[in-house]
Design goal:
Length: 257
């Protein structure tokens, strides 16, 4: 077992991934958040346009959603579009904003039968109405589902989220609805877009970048981080299982989840 573990932690060539059964025999992280980086780089390496990488990345979202749901993960939060992403070329942004429709057009029936609930966090106002409509329909159609919550961060930025929360708290204090001395850690959490879900237990970032890039700064305070050089379009169920296995090993070391 120790030998196997070492290989999991070592270089890619020798990696033997844990099986689904392996990771399901131990506590599964309830909430997994993923920064899905490396789609553009994946395309560049193949001399393809960046949008080809985004499209391939979307297919990976489907597969990882299936696996997470099978494993009994409660919440899967995916960083699909940041408030910074508007700075990308107009054509690329336009393409990205068509992906939710394409994704849901083919995948929503399966999400419904798999009992997955679609949610989003982020500022919906700047999102094109065709995109917003598709996401809102998916949220309505899956609102009674009790399985995995598939939470898309769309036009999301953590500093924006915190700023908005602070403004609302200030307004509630000013209007007399909130006594100032009731402001604490828990109350602040209730003003964030994640008020109804637990903080992530595990954060995954692909593509060899080691930054948070304005993602869930408040919510990641106690989260385990797992990084990989694998580009998002190359991310498979095996990488997810490795990340969860590593999470479980860390938790065993300090005695339980
Ligand atoms: C591109 C890799 C699924 C990251 C994954 C609008 C970048 C593929 C969605 C999606 C994107 C979002 C909401 C929803 C259903 C699906 C998505 C965007 C980008 C940005 F309700 N993939 N995906 N949205 N990419």
């Amino acid at each position: 077992m120790l030998d196997k573990l070492k290989r999991w932690n070592n270089k890619k060539e020798n990696v033997i991934s844990p099986t689904k059964e392996d990771v399901m025999s131990k506590p599964i992280p309830k909430h997994i958040a993923i920064i899905m980086d490396g789609n553009g780089r994946w395309a560049n390496k193949r001399a393809l346009p960046r949008i080809a990488g985004h499209h391939e990345g979307m297919k990976v979202v489907r597969r990882i959603t299936r696996t997470a749901n099978e494993l009994g993960v409660e919440v899967l939060t995916l960083y699909a579009f940041s408030t910074e992403n508007w700075k990308r070329p107009k054509q690329e942004v336009e393409y990205l904003m068509k992906l939710p429709e394409e994704f849901l057009g083919t995948f929503l029936p399966e999400l419904i039968t798999q009992n997955v609930r679609v949610q989003m966090m982020g500022n919906p106002e700047e999102i094109p109405s065709h995109t917003r409509r598709a996401v809102e329909k998916a949220m309505v159609d899956t609102k009674d589902n009790t399985g995995l919550i598939l939470n898309f961060a769309l036009n999301y930025g953590s500093r924006d989220e915190i700023t908005k929360a602070i403004k609302e708290i200030a307004a509630d204090v000013k209007s007399g609805h909130l006594p100032e001395d009731e402001i604490n850690d828990q109350l602040i959490s209730q003003y964030l877009m994640t008020s109804k879900i637990n903080d992530p237990d595990l954060l995954i970032r692909t593509s060899g970048e080691y930054r948070l890039s304005n993602f869930m700064l408040w919510q990641l305070a106690y989260t385990e981080f797992w990084f990989t050089d694998v580009l998002w379009p190359d991310f498979t169920e095996n990488e997810l299982l490795e990340a969860i296995h590593e999470f479980q090993a860390r938790h065993r070391r300090y005695g339980g989840v």
